[in-house]
Design a protein that fits this description.
Oligomer: heterotrimer
Distance between the termini of chain B: 37 Å
Number of domains of chain C: 1
Strand order of the largest sheet of chain C: 5-1-6
Helix content of chain C: 40-55%
Strand content of chain B: 25-35%
Radius of gyration of chain B: 19 Å
Largest interface: A-B, 22 and 20 residues
Number of helices of chain B: 10
Radius of gyration of chain C: 13 Å
Largest sheet of chain B: 8 strands, mixed
Number of strands of chain B: 16
Number of helices of chain C: 3
Chains: A alpha/beta (355), B alpha+beta (304), C alpha+beta (98)
Chain lengths: 355, 304, 98
């Protein structure tokens, strides 16, 4: 069963029960999976269809290693959210967990086998100073100490500079909206909070409503500058859409995208999950989001860029180039062009400074 | 087929083409490099290692190559790549072979979470493992080489791979790395040692590698059960002596020396506790009298 | 705060421990940390683990004194109090609210 290497991982995730026996395929699969941070997910899906025991011993060791890592990270995320709760206790600040931490604490499918990097939370913009100082009291220190970077994050982005706990070294990103204010998208963060769902098992924490969770995942992937987790984020999206996607969900999703001015990311999300991962998006929904598509020439270029960028870098040489192009696009989406030029120049110049 | 069965031309062809695919204990690596020093190092130190057959799975794909760029000509460098990605700064080209060795250590310590990976030398006698967890400067490598010279089987000079039951340690036989004065010390103590090129001016000083004995390589699939955990300490001129070490302290030293203890959580705790339970734990001081040191360990092995 | 507070392990199921020669090593799943407790700390922790629903501080001190064959004097009590504070900080022990 020979497959084009770059599609190998996507196919394996979709149909883990159809195991590939040849040496070449397993080596490439493990390599791509490792690079895309999806080994844990692959291991979980194989486990779920009772296929893990049938994997040859040598590649299976890597899958088991990834499972061990995943388990450890899940425990760490739980501990970390407990610490964040302690730090913010009693202040009445609504805290919405985003992405991995949200999937884990809400018990959602994307959490299974997921490898986490940092924790993302969303708080109201007006409460940011208070949240930042409470976190600092609890041992979280701000990173990116160069004043330029600090300004970049605070004024132009939608988050504080990443914070890192001084002892535990865990990373925390504090957001006040899900799209940067400079991006020309008029998103009302208040709407996100109004729709947020409290977590019974984690008092003080909320997660986004299912519609907003999907839209956030789509926005994060398609607006973001770094595509290193592109395929993983797409896998998350597929898992969310599959989990939530019943008859009432789809039209509500399209409507909500309109409300929040996130139609374009939704268009890409549905297009790429259905094409690359076979997500069961109803045909009429795909037709419905066509109105959010970019002009045809842009669409062709974006299609190629995204498809290349969403593969692990080792799968095809085009990927690194595509990522670089998308990095620029990610930045471009976030900032008006003159600001972007200045930002990139400043960043490049700083690399030349003596250490 | 072993590496020694390949002609120099064939070795070169593989290293500069499809990759040299070899087995090292439980791990298989695919290695590429255009450096002569890397080819020479592999030919010497990995002579007895098995070459993979078609259909075998390689765990890691690594390469040591010259980075592109102007520096190629006036200050040549060597760059380590893992799965095609370079995440580490290049080193001077002369350090190409030590860079490969270091890179292979990195691959295992960062990825082999099916084991508890401990920074320690591991040797075996009578089926039982001697674990020497020790920070740099403790003389662990010199001691390791000396024990191997006198017949102890080498499992590893750097990385102990402990199964999660805590009851078996798996070999990962590779060249023993020595630094600075230790190179001469070992050369004198072990005249038959196959010591490779001495590479000067690395971050650790001068570095050289000793070929692992053929027997250690051939028995690379034979695990050992716990025997002793010994914390060595080198003190110039000191008398060779064994002293008591509480098991709790030995345990904590293993915890601190493990690369991936945090990943295993409670299971890691239980595994290392099993290992310590089943081992005799000691502190060991020696002043350079290697014969005495080896003699002491030999007596342990006999008493077991 | 009661003058003879009740102490118990913070999360008894989250703890794994092993003892060699009266020295305890402890893994705490609450924090993910591993600790090597000194002789007194080990004695206190071992006693707490035997009383998951709680033991009064004075009874704790008396028990340790009896095991060690010493008098339960002020010095011992103070030392135990410090050990309990340390264990509390490590989330290994907690005082039961009155």
């Amino acid at each position: 069963m020979k497959r084009v290497p770059s599609r190998l991982l996507a196919h394996a995730l979709r149909e883990p029960q159809r195991l590939v026996e040849e040496r070449d395929a397993w080596e490439a699969l493990i390599r791509h999976g490792r690079e895309a941070d999806l080994l844990g997910t692959l291991a979980f899906r194989l486990d779920a269809c009772a296929g893990l025991a049938q994997v040859p011993a040598a590649p299976r060791a890597h899958l088991i290693a990834a499972q061990n890592q995943c388990r450890a990270q899940q425990a760490a995320v739980r501990r970390e959210t407990a610490e964040i709760a302690r730090a913010l206790h009693g202040r009445g600040v609504p805290v919405v967990l985003l992405k991995g931490a949200a999937y884990l604490l809400a018990g959602l499918p994307p959490a299974r086998g997921r490898l986490f990097s940092d924790i993302d939370i969303l708080v109201p913009k007006a409460r940011l100073p208070e949240v930042e100082s409470a976190l600092m009291l609890a041992g979280f220190a701000t990173t990116h100490l160069h004043p330029y970077d600090q300004r970049y994050y605070r004024r132009w982005m939608h988050e504080l500079p990443p914070m890192q706990h001084v002892k535990r070294l865990t990373l925390l990103d504090v957001h006040h909206t899900i799209v940067p204010e400079t991006a020309g998208v008029r998103l009302d963060a208040g709407a996100l909070f109004r729709g947020a769902v409290p977590l019974a098992d984690a008092p003080g924490f909320h997660v986004l409503s299912p519609l907003d969770m999907v839209l956030h995942s789509a926005t994060h992937l398609f607006h973001n500058e770094e595509m290193t987790h592109g395929l993983r984020d797409l896998v998350d999206l597929d898992a969310l859409l599959t989990h939530f996607g019943d008859r009432p969900f789809w039209p509500a999703l399209v409507a909500r995208a309109g409300e929040l001015d996130l139609g374009r990311p939704l268009y890409y999300a549905l297009r790429f999950t259905s094409r690359m991962l076979g997500t069961a998006v109803p045909g009429d929904v795909l037709a419905d989001v066509e109105r959010y598509a970019p002009p045809a020439p842009v669409r062709v270029v974006m299609d190629r860029l995204l498809e290349a960028a969403l593969q692990p870098a080792s799968a095809q040489p085009a990927t690194r180039w595509a990522r670089r192009a998308l990095y620029l696009r990610g930045h471009w989406l976030k900032m008006p062009v003159p600001l972007l030029a200045w930002h990139l120049t400043a960043k490049a110049l700083r690399r030349e400074e003596p250490a | 087929m072993i590496v020694a069965d390949l002609s120099a031309g064939e070795l070169r062809r593989r290293l500069t083409g499809p990759g040299l695919r070899i087995r090292v204990g439980p791990v298989a690596a695919e290695i590429r490099s255009s450096f002569d020093a890397v080819q020479a190092g592999l030919a010497l130190h990995y002579a007895a290692h098995d070459v993979l057959t078609a259909g075998d799975f390689a765990d890691f794909r690594v390469s040591v190559e010259r980075p592109l760029g102007v520096r190629r000509w006036f200050a040549p460098q060597a760059l380590f790549r893992f799965d095609g990605n370079s995440m580490f700064t290049p080193l001077p080209a002369a350090q190409a072979f030590p860079l490969l060795e270091w890179g292979l250590n990195w691959c295992v310590s960062t990825h082999c979470h099916q084991y508890i990976v401990i920074h320690a030398a591991v040797l075996e006698r009578n089926g039982r493992a001697l674990l020497l967890p020790a920070p740099p400067g403790s003389g662990k490598s010199t001691l390791c080489a000396a024990l191997v010279a006198r017949g102890w089987r080498l499992l590893s000079d750097e990385l102990a791979l402990v199964e999660l039951t805590g009851r078996r340690i798996v070999p990962f036989p590779r060249p023993i790395s020595l630094k600075n004065r230790s190179i001469d010390t070992v050369a004198r103590f072990w005249p038959d040692a196959a010591i490779g090129a001495v590479v000067p001016d690395t971050l650790k000083g001068s570095v050289a590698h000793v070929r692992p004995p053929v027997d250690s390589v051939r028995r690379g699939d034979e695990a050992a059960t716990p025997g002793w955990v010994v914390l060595p300490r080198y003190e110039s001129g000191a008398t060779t002596r064994i002293s008591e070490l509480s098991k709790a302290e030995a345990f904590m030293r293993l915890v601190e020396s493990a690369f991936n203890y945090d990943i295993h959580g409670r299971a890691g705790f239980e595994a290392l506790a099993e290992l310590v339970d089943a081992s005799a734990c000691h502190a060991f001081t020696y002043g350079g009298a290697l014969d005495e040191a080896v003699g002491m360990f030999d007596r342990f092995a006999q008493a077991a | 705060m009661s003058r003879d507070p009740l102490w118990r392990p913070f999360a008894p199921d989250a703890v794994a421990s092993r003892s060699w020669n009266d020295e305890l090593v402890v893994y705490n799943d609450v924090t993910g940390s591993t600790h090597h407790l000194g002789v007194l700390g080990s004695a206190v922790m071992t006693t707490l683990l035997l009383h998951p629903t709680g033991i009064a501080q004075t009874a704790l001190v008396r028990g340790i004194a009896d095991d060690a064959g010493v008098v339960a004097d002020g010095d011992l009590a103070a030392a135990v109090e410090r050990a309990l504070a340390d264990l509390s900080e490590l989330r290994l022990a907690t005082a039961v609210p009155a």
